[in-house]
Amino acid sequence: MLRAIFKTEAGSTTLLLAATIVAMLWANSPWGDTYEAFWHIPVGLTFGDATFSLDLRHWVNDGLMAIFFFVIGLEISYEMRLGQMRDRRLVAVPALAALGGLVVPAGIYLMLNAGGPGAVGWGVPIATDTAFVLGLLAVVGARCPDPLRAFLLTLAIVDDVLAIMIIAIFYTASLSVPALVTAVLLLAAIMLLRWLRIWRAPAYIVLGFALWVATLESGVHPTLVGIALGVLVFVYAPSDRKLIRAGEAVQELTYAPNPRAAVEATRLVRMSVSVNERLQLLLHPWSSYVIVPIFALANAGIRLDSETLSAAMTSPISIGVALGLLAGKLLGITLGTWLPLRLNWGVLPGNLVWGQVLGGAAVSGIGFTVSLFIVELAFEDPLLISEAKIGILAGSIASALLGWIIFKLAWNRGGVCAPPDAAAEPEEERPELLSTPVGPDDHVRGPADAAVTVVEYGDFECPYCGRLHPILEELRRRRPDVRFVFRHYPLRDMHPRALAAALVAEAAGRDGRFWEMHDKLYAAQRALADADLARYAAELKVDLSAPIAARAARIERDERSGRESGVRGTPTLFINGVRYRGRLDLAPIIEAVEKARPAAAPGKKTP
User: Residue 264: which residues within 8 A CB-CB, separation 6 or more?
Assistant: First the structure.
């Protein structure tokens, strides 16, 4: 999940949003009656005298969504065995945050609906829509660092597991014991095949389909089958032996191309990667680009006439769902994060700060896919279904706007991207003077005989450095006699793309284009992925193929000089070798520059 989903999040979210809009337009068009009529068309399978039939919406909700949850099960299995969820201290915080994000929204909803006809819908506001959340974070860009994405993805995994458990336990209307026993026996058969290491896809497909039918007939929601089967799929790290054998087979194919060598190389290369990862690669695009948009098309068609909207505005169901998503998720996830940190039960990945966590908690109130899913299970009355769906839309939109505002405020407020140990050393104990004078190896812009030199220790992914960049550009325009120096200080724990960007800038510097790349990186600060950096290098005709050792050493020299000068965060400025402690705004920086100028000779004007 932490790897493949980044490749599809923006595109799949766009398609999901488009499907939602189409469903809304369809349901509210002059042909709105055809929306429900279409999704209630029965479609069935016949085996002799036996008939198995569902309407189109149930095929989507009970069938296609089982595949969606199968992919989630694959991701859970991978993360628990090889991924971030192996580290209990990293999992503890998002797991308890997910629990808080379930309990508090449900509690808020029940405060408004306990004892009423809507009480059964308490599960509607508990789920976070991972696809929409990641899509919004992709738009937020550099304001949301990768450690926050990792935190929210781990939270989403736990959230999905808890939601499926709630669906299985609380939204099962009636149980058929014979069908349930059959489902248990089929699941045992699948586990036996796995234990015997029999990897024949047709056997698993047949048994899996039979298990889905038996579970559906038992009364337990079949999406539970998807999660269970996904978790059971074998996952392993590639062993050295398998990698060596695959490498040898590819080498043999290179030396003597022939069909037998090609088949053997293909087999060994495929076997070096676990079935789990191969299935994720195969199914994730289908889940993201096909299944979830079809689900939205089948379930998001809410009738929004004046009567429905006026009823929803006073409906405890709509208000409970909207408040549960907006306030419940923010409060629950925040408390669920604070408590384990306070008790030292776990840590946040990548040294996240509270502004980022609050933004992530707010956008987690976007509850769409699973929330709509639970609505169809919880209610039968079309009016209650409509009110609950309106609450989902209102709460999700409000949560997205609140998250956007929090990220924007966190991005724009004054300060530095300081690592956690910055506060450990009192400010007065840090050196006041620049430890390493400006030399011929520095990146310098401005006259060599300048009376004032401004040295910046910066990080290309730091949002505050990005905010400072146009200010320094304006200063350079107003004071052309000032010399500017840039030194690298990538905060690697907080900004995982910063070092790669610095390496690309150094490659440009080797070709005499450092400042061009410097300006381009800050102008496109929210797009610093490897593909983006390669594109910028190609645009400036910068060669990235040379060994990186010299560039890395150059960056390390800057970092060392920064540490010796007391730099703890970015951006940090030194004006004529003295640490600047004022606000990072144009007027105070200009004032500091003017104060740093040597006294002008009599009769000579200071520019």
Answer: 249, 252, 253
